[in-house]
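[Help] Beginner question about ligand-bound structures

Sorry if this is basic. My supervisor gave me a protein sequence and a SMILES string for zinc ion and asked me to "get the holo structure". I don't really know what that means in practice or what format the answer should be in. Inputs are pasted below exactly as I got them.
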Amino acid sequence: MKVICPVCNRLFEAECTPYTTDYNNIKYYFDTEICMLAFLREPDRFAFKCKKNEG
Ligand SMILES: [Zn+2]
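Answer (accepted):
No worries, everyone starts somewhere. Holo just means with the ligand present. The predicted complex, written as structure tokens, is below.
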């Protein structure tokens, strides 16, 4: 499965990385530990924007 690292926007194979995390019930894959740590520090900055009905 191809996934995109939310931190550096690089496309890679999800099976090739041990760096994953769950945030707001969405699983995120990272190509490097550095990217994962950056995400965990400021998850709202990197989390994919999901369309939600507001109000
Ligand atoms: Zn990355």
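A couple of things worth pointing out: Residues 2-46 form one domain. The first strand starts at residue 2 and ends at 4. Feel free to follow up in the thread.
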